[in-house]
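Bench log. Compound arrived from synthesis this morning; before running ITC I wanted a structural hypothesis for how pyridoxal-5'-phosphate sits in the protein. Inputs:
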Amino acid sequence: MDKSFPLSPDIHEDIISGHPERNILTGWSSVAVHSGHSQDPNYAHLVPIYASSTFVYDEAEQGMRRFSGKEEGYIYSRWGNPTFTEAENKIAALETFGVQYNGSPVEVKGILHASGMGAITTLMVANLKQGDKILTHFSLYGGTEELITNILPPLGIGHIIADLRDLNKAEDILKEDQSIRLLYLETPANPTIQCVDIEELTRLAKQYNVIVACDNTFATPFLQQPFRYGVDFVIHSTTKFLNGHGTAIGGIMLGRDVERMKTRIHVLAKTLGGNANPFDAFMLISGMKTLEVRMERHCQNAMEVAHFLNDHPAVSKVNYTGLESHPDRHIALKQMRHPGAMMSFELKRGLQGGIDFMNKLRMCVRTVSLGTCDTLLSHPASMTHYSVPKEEKEKYGITDGLIRMNVGIENVQDIINDLDQALK
Ligand SMILES: *Cc1c(COP(=O)(O)O)cnc(C)c1O
């Protein structure tokens, strides 16, 4: 990893030393490869894709025991499926590997969903009722923002959107408004890679009995483990770096109150019907085994690319917390192992500059989404945000020449050469 971004010593220390009770798997990739797996009854090496909607009983009494919860076992795939279970347990292990909170190891339970948005929907419905409010930072994933600002309000669920990098302001808001029930964090966030302080905000939220959830999609558990700071829920769009190859849409909701996750939240999730499917779960499991090796390469490439862009005459600004210039670098340094693979940059030539640049790319790919092995670039002003009014765009830091990039794992010189020729 790049030495110019020093590792936070305590994070590094317990990742290396491992969890005392899981001392067979003492290193990150061992957990990524092996955790969550259980021996297949037919001795298949890998978990099979359990393409079965329902599960059968040896006798009527077994059905009775399963339905009443006296015996563990699968019933119907909307409720749970062995292929989902392996993915859920693997992500839970990665999010808690080496993690202690208040001096004790943390245990969490995950529920796999059809998409990141499916998981976020379950999170919201599980924790909010009419009259409650969500407190969140302004740079949110588009779908999450749509849910919070347009879909939940008619159901009587409000929101306060503020700059949560200002901790005094965050505290004032929490103190003033007793109806805030959920603090929703997403860090780092689109498109300017803003970060919020998970530890400080969670500490404040706890003082006012507010539940905390964190979208950890951009960082992945390899770079950031929010349960370390006492958050109640972690959300992922597994579509991105966890799957890693762009082969499936998926999401997960993980919770620290294991009993509640297994009972009330499981009932809710299976009733809302946003369950995953076994094929996508299988693709996710395969992808996660290489998370550490992929992330190391993504991060190493990203740091080099960021420096290249920062020195380039056609680029006016690079938003990357690995650079001294990013205003949230101190937050990233505190809670992340490395600034990650996402960045954005501004072209001096504005809208037309952005269009010309995108058209000239030869190896890097023109598309939205992120977390794949290939370098992906998007130009919000001509693509995702084409029809959004200018003032609205500027609120999010989306200028006409802004390019968003997921730096892939290709040879870094090939990435730089492609960007260089496209910038000419
Ligand atoms: C993609 C994404 C989501 C939504 O996930 P889907 O799998 O597309 O539903 C949520 N949060 C972040 C940060 C994302 O990048």
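What the model suggests: Residues 6-22 have pLDDT under 50 and may be disordered. The longest helix spans residues 291-310.
ITC booked for Thursday regardless.
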